[in-house]
Description:
Elements lengths: L3 E2 L4 E3 L1 H4 L15 H10 L5 H4 L11 H16 L3 E3 L5 E10 L2 E13 L8 E2 L6 H14 L1 E2 L3 E5 L5 H9 L6 E4 L5 E7 L2 H11 L4 E5 L1 H18 L10 E8 L6 E3 L2 E4 L7 H8 L3 E8 L4 H11 L4 E6 L4 E7 L1 H10 L5 H4 L2 H13 L9 E3 L2 H10 L9 E4 L5 H9 L10 E3 L9 E2 L3
Parallel strand pairs: 6-11, 8-12
Antiparallel strand pairs: 1-5, 2-3, 4-5, 4-10, 5-12, 7-21, 8-11, 9-10, 13-20, 14-18, 14-19, 15-17, 16-17, 16-19
Helix pairs in contact: 4-5, 5-8, 6-7, 11-13
Amino acid sequence: xxxxxxxxxxxxxxxxxxxxxxxxxxxxxxxxxxxxxxxxxxxxxxxxxxxxxxxxxxxxxxxxxxxxxxxxxxxxxxxxxxxxxxxxxxxxxxxxxxxxxxxxxxxxxxxxxxxxxxxxxxxxxxxxxxxxxxxxxxxxxxxxxxxxxxxxxxxxxxxxxxxxxxxxxxxxxxxxxxxxxxxxxxxxxxxxxxxxxxxxxxxxxxxxxxxxxxxxxxxxxxxxxxxxxxxxxxxxxxxxxxxxxxxxxxxxxxxxxxxxxxxxxxxxxxxxxxxxxxxxxxxxxxxxxxxxxxxxxxxxxxxxxxxxxxxxxxxxxxxxxxxxxxxxxxxxxxxxxxxxxxxxxxxxxxxxxxxxxxxxxxxxxxxxxxxxxxxxxxxxxxxxxxxxxxxxxxxxxxxxxxxxxxxxxxxxxxxxxxxxxxxxxxxxxxxxxxxxxxxx
Length: 440
């Protein structure tokens, strides 16, 4: 049973900071150095100083970044820049955005999700995590004793009953509003009525929850609770560290958009189409479609038209040719062999086929550096024209279909995790709308 609770959130006092848009930021893991510097300049209380504090001259160690974030968090509360709600609340959260010329609104709500280790309850992961990222987030959580960003969870609700309860509760109320750097409008409404929260809990309780984004933060929250237990002994049932601040969106919400995550591969020589054909032709039916980086759009249109996970668009930088690769029966047999321990659903994912079959097995290019991940075809084109961070041609580029919500549900229920960056839920949730105290 999924347990959701209201919590007394900590929020920016707009009387102190002015516009909410000036103090919010994207999630920490999509902020590069240039954006961080820009956010630092945007406002002295921008949330980036908490979620991704930068090194400063005179720092004795990396720990100083986390300590400085904690000092900011305490200072802003002391000065009234941040204020804590008097009563527990859930927070209705809308995101208004444009995608492919259409207007969408994604509707959800933020609450505290009771923690349960993955595999032991009704909260399911779907992607792999990395130890370094979890260590970083744990150090920050220990320093600030708070959830500074929410995770993103999705749940099945064919009639959107849970969200309907909240939409009724906020009817006629004025939201808090911020606009991010991509032009997405974010609106939140606190809902503190205990009867509304109780009705929401009753509807949500039987539903499973799937972590769409924030796996590292969820596992960090579990690790932080274990850290507190080791330090203090068993926590009271109502201790806030037994939960994590979470955004919940119905899988049937009209604003649920899952974008692909295309790959630009480094750490390998630039392949030619003849080299790729020699390596892959037994397992894929290969068709040469076009030449040059700008043809990526044509290739992607064909992939979307076919709509199959087993169709990949592959760019060979050595001769600038695009190949369309369709997995064939021999390829599926080979995939079943090299991914024997995985389910047929996992084996059929485009990202699984790309990495396990093509890159690891047929190209024997294991242990490559993390690819450069991009989501828009225009970003693929720009990357191929510019080269990698050192200006060198990429070894290979791949256009790949995203996993669907049904894939997440099916694969998660089998206790499996997809390859990294199998999904990209657009738009990203903002950091800085609400904070969740963990210090009891």
